[in-house]
Amino acid sequence: MRGLTTPLLTILLPLGLSGISLPLIEALTTVPREPSAPPTRIVALTLGTAELIADLVPTNRIQAVSYLATKEGVSNVASLLAGVPSIRGVNTEELLKRHPDLILASRYTEPAAISQLRRCGLPVLRFTDHESFRQIERNVRQLGRTIEAQEQAKRIVDWMRDTLRAVREAVAGKDQSAERVLFFNGHFTAGQETLTDAQIDLAGGINLASLAGIEGYAPISDELVVALDPTVIVLTVSLRSKGDFADPRGAILAKSAWRNVTAIREGRVHLLPNEHLSTRSPYAVLAVVDLAKVLHPEVAESIDVAPHPSRPSSSTRGSR
């Protein structure tokens, strides 16, 4: 191949926030390709990368995606990817049979698996930074340039900004300090330098974990929860191994150690859409909308969110 090289970043959109964050490592990957041949046989190994690519290209340029990307209640693009083959994990033999010209992976994809794919001559692109909306915008633009979908990438970024602007205008002037928020997932919460922290702030609330000095995604004790005394507790559902969802609200409300917490006493324990709050794709702006409506219900009707930009229609350039 003649050598156009494209530096790429790695994004991960976890299904849920169930682990302590790792240090962000910015990995630049060089991928040779023909100057006039954008990728047309794309494989997305993770939910997050599937959400990125599904909004940028028609499905006839997508060879396969993570099975999570086709699951309603987990993925924001399940309907868009209906009919696209799904895969679990990284199976080099299976991927070779698909003859991909672009594989999208996350920073949590096993390094050994990525190395093996590259040794087999498969181009693997990784996205690493995703804990701010600016980073997500950068990822969208970078991928748009790589696959020659710059105009659609710009539309998505503009939609993100318009959505956040609508929330900001709706909650302007509200007493942010009155809404003390705790995000809770299992035994973990989200503190400083996380997208969740930014989402709570933009929605007009105070993230108590951040205020307490917690960094990244970390466990939080019952004692600290009681001491922080949140006025609002935000939860997401967890995906069970058998494929259904577990609603955590009953268990939280029944926690004897938390019985005097304001949010428990006042019944302000809210289950938000997992696909909005857990994603690290452009759809993460919808979690800001969800949070604003929970924290400031009186302004819910005034938040005017434009429809998400439609993806391109199918093209003859990339049939599977």
UniProtKB/TrEMBL annotation:
Q: What SUPFAM superfamilies does the record point to?
A: Helical backbone' metal receptor
Locate the coiled-coil region(s) and give their ranges. none
Q: Which InterPro entries match?
A: ABC_Transporter_SBP (IPR050902), ABC_transptr_periplasmic_BD (IPR002491)
Where is each Fe/B12 periplasmic-binding domain found?
A: 41-299
What protein is this chain from? Hemin-binding periplasmic protein HmuT
Q: Which gene encodes it?
A: hmuT
